[in-house]
Structure formats: structure tokens, C-alpha cells
Amino acid sequence: MKQTGHEVRTGMKDRAILVSLVTDNMKKHEELVAYSLQELIQLAETAGVEVLETLTQNRERADTKWFIGKGKVEELKALIDEHEATTAIFDQELSGAQVRNLEEALDVKIIDRTQLILDIFAGRARTREGIVQVELAQLSYLLPRLSGHGKNLSRLGGGIGTRGPGESKLETDRRHIRGRIGELKAHLQEMVRHRTLHRERRRKTGVYQVALVGYTNSGKSTLLRQLTNADVYVQNELFATLDPTSRMLELPSGKEVVLTDTVGFIQNLPHDVVAAFRATLEEACEADFLLHVVDSSSPMREEQMRVVNEVLGDLGASGKPQAVLFNKIDLCTEQELQLLTTNLPHLRISAYEEKDQERVKLLIQETLMGDSRTFRIPADKGDIIALVYRVGDVAESGAEEDVLTFRVNINKDDYDKVQYLLSPYEVKEEKDKQDTQGE
């Protein structure tokens, strides 16, 4: 017997048939199509859905009315009745008209990939900023589709596709929703302003920022926790981390940097999500150094790396200094390890190995600290001495009467910013000598 709306409202699990359309253009990328469907299963399970069966349709192009074609809709209807499913989840984005037609024909809740991802985000958001971003993304997605969500909006109060903004907000008219979107954008702008002020404050104190970026479930949060002893949520599931988490990381030299975990990327990341989460993802844009964490055990490793680089490009962060961390090497075979190459600086690591954690810290230190320079500073110039410690990594120090000598590793960009203050005290001869020896 099919579940009633009352049964679902009282907390019973959504039971879904997953549907994927393979057009002629997609057939040349069969491996990606299969992976996308596998990922959809993971997304559904992450959202708390019981996946009953998958259905694939091959067509020259999407049907404008039924998406998968009238005949395949009838086949899907039979599957839904047979398994007593409550939901059909599509791997591609649907138009409002397609949702309406499918609802009327199938009499179940219709969800597409974008709505499913947004639903997971709604369940993951913890901070005020995360909650605002999710609501903005959901409303931006639903606004042009309101006419197609007639039954969805009145059908149920619980289950996937209804978290976040809530049923009452979604049933209001477009003008109210546009007004709400305006309010949320204003809130986000204020949050961005505060975040920018914090970043500027960190810059003035000479603190570097390092951002962990990568595909969802690549191990970024685990690495953050292992490196900084941070109390962060770690689970083997998609989008375990939604809100950015920043912690201080002490490098082997004793200098501290800010290490930030960011939301994981995914293929076909909805544009509404990228737009709404731009404030969070700006952490990657503003970082001094990006650590691209890769699940080296994934059979789709190369594709996942391509997706991350594509999103970084969309955000304007692709030109940032970057290193690749091939994580989870303990899950790889020897043959798989041989394939882990890139033209960027890279390390092969397991986030749980202490020696690998130290190698990551050294990589950060060597990348950010830069050239070695020597300064002789009068002991009474406390502000200049403090500046040296702030912008560089002091490797050696000594004293001769009233003059202090410092050998400092300092990043060229940072040195350029304070050169007018430090250049009078730099020992040029020694610097030139070191340069000659290095050639």
C-alpha cells in the first residue's frame, strides 16, 4: 500500500526511484554518466533517502514536456507503484513545467539534483551565514519554478526538498520572495563586510591565510582536525562541512598561520549555490596559499580535480599559489600511487600519519616564508624589530653592542609591502652573496 501524506509528515523516510537521462552528447562520456548517477545515490543517502532503484533513459535530447519522454514516464510510474516509492529524484535539472507534468503523471514528489544538493546544505548549515546562504540559494532556485511546484509545495511538510525556507515561505507570491531575496543579499553583504574587516586585521598583523579546497569528501576536515587539533565535524559523507572553519596552525618554525576549511565542491555544482556561497568561498580567493586536497583512492580522481580547478577559476582564485595534497594514499595500490603526478608542487599523504602532517606544515612554511634576508637593526628600534618578527620567519638572531642582527625568511610580496621600512636595515652584501651561491 502506498504511503499517505500523513505517514510521510510524521517522519517516515523518503523512498525514491533515481532517474538519469543520457543524451547523445553525453554518450561519449559514459564513465562520467555512470559516476554522476553513483554520486546521486550518495547524495540521496546523505539526505536520508532510501534508494529503491535507478532508471536510465537514452534519448537524443531531453523531452521538453516529460524530460525522459512519455513512454519512460509510464515505465517510471510502474516502478513507483511496484516499490511504493514516495519520491522520484532526477540527476539533471528540471524546468518548472517538467516538474508540474511529472507530478501530475506520477503523483509523487519530484526532486532534481540541484534541489537535492540544496536540501543537504539546508540540513548542514549551522552558522547564521550558512543558513542565510542556503535560504538565498533555495529561493533563487525556486523563484523561476514556482508554477511547476504546485503539489510539491502543498504536498508535505517534511522530507527532502522542504527543508530550509519552509513550506509557508515558498507558497507566497513572487513579489514577497523577491523581497526576501533582497533582504538575504543585504545580510550577506554585511557578513562579507565583517569577514573582510577580519581579513584586513589579519593582514595588518602579518598572519598568513591558507585555505583547504577540494572535492567533497576528500578529507579536508580530517586534515584540519589532525593539523590543528580542531573540534570539527568529520564524517565519511558528502558535504559534511558547510560552514568555513578557521584555526591557527603552528609551523615548525613557531610562526602561526590561519588554516581554513571550505565547503567541498561537486560536479554540476548549481550556479545558485556558487552565487549564494560566494561569500564563504571568498576565503579561497583571499588566501595566500591553497592546499588542494584530493582523494587519491577515487577512480574519478582526475575528473574531481578538474571540477575543483574549474570552480576555482569561476571564483577568480585559479591564479593563487597552490599545492596538491594526494590524500588517502593508505587506500591506494602501488600502481595507483605511481599515477599521482601533477605539474604543481604536491605531496602524497595520509591525513592520519604524523610524519605526513609535518611534511604538510613544512610545505606551507617553505612556500610562504620565502627568501632569506639579513637585517641589522638598532636595539632601540622596537617597532622595526616587531615588524621583522611579524612579516617573516626569524631563522637566526644575534647581538653586537646596541645592534641586533636577524636572518629572516620572508615572502617577496610581503617584503615589497614593507620594503620602505626595512630596506635601510638590510645587509645587501650578504644577500647578494647568498644569491650568488644559490646560482
TrEMBL record:
Cellular compartment(s): Cytoplasm
InterPro entries registered for this protein in UniProt: G_HFLX_dom, GTP-bd, GTP-bd_M, GTPase_HflX, GTPase_HflX_N, GTPase_HflX_N_sf, P-loop_NTPase
Alphabetical keyword list: Cytoplasm, GTP-binding, Magnesium, Metal-binding, Nucleotide-binding
Binding locations of Mg(2+): S221, T241
Pfam families: GTP-bdg_M (PF16360), GTP-bdg_N (PF13167), MMR_HSR1 (PF01926)
Cofactor: Mg(2+)
CDD domains in the cross-refs: HflX
Protein family per UniProt: Belongs to the TRAFAC class OBG-HflX-like GTPase superfamily. HflX GTPase family.
Listed HAMAP family: GTPase_HflX
Role summary: GTPase that associates with the 50S ribosomal subunit and may have a role during protein synthesis or ribosome biogenesis.
Quaternary structure and interacting proteins, as annotated: Monomer. Associates with the 50S ribosomal subunit.
Protein name: GTPase HflX
Organism name: Paenibacillus chitinolyticus
Gene that encodes it: hflX
